[in-house]
Amino acid sequence: MYRESVVNAVNSALRRINVASVVEDKINSMSVEELEKGVLSVMKTELDMIVNLGGLIGLVIGCINILI
Predict the structure, then answer these.
(1) What is the DSSP letter of 18?
(2) Residue 14 predicted with pLDDT over 80
(3) Per-residue b/e over 1-19, b at no fewer than 16 CB within 10 Å?
(4) C-alpha dist (Å) from residue 9 to 14, 18, 47, 49
């Protein structure tokens, strides 16, 4: 019952706030340099995670290869 009330309140608030237009306005107000810096920051974080995961997978496959 409490959870349902919270979900309904959040959904109602999200409909009134219109998150998509707020985000669009913020992005449109940013300069190209700020937007590029933000995108590159996110890309660096995600690519670092992909590189680390690739290293871990390579390590596991290498260890399995040694055991076989």
Answers:
(1) T
(2) no
(3) eeeeeeeeeeeeeeeeeee
(4) 9, 14, 37, 36
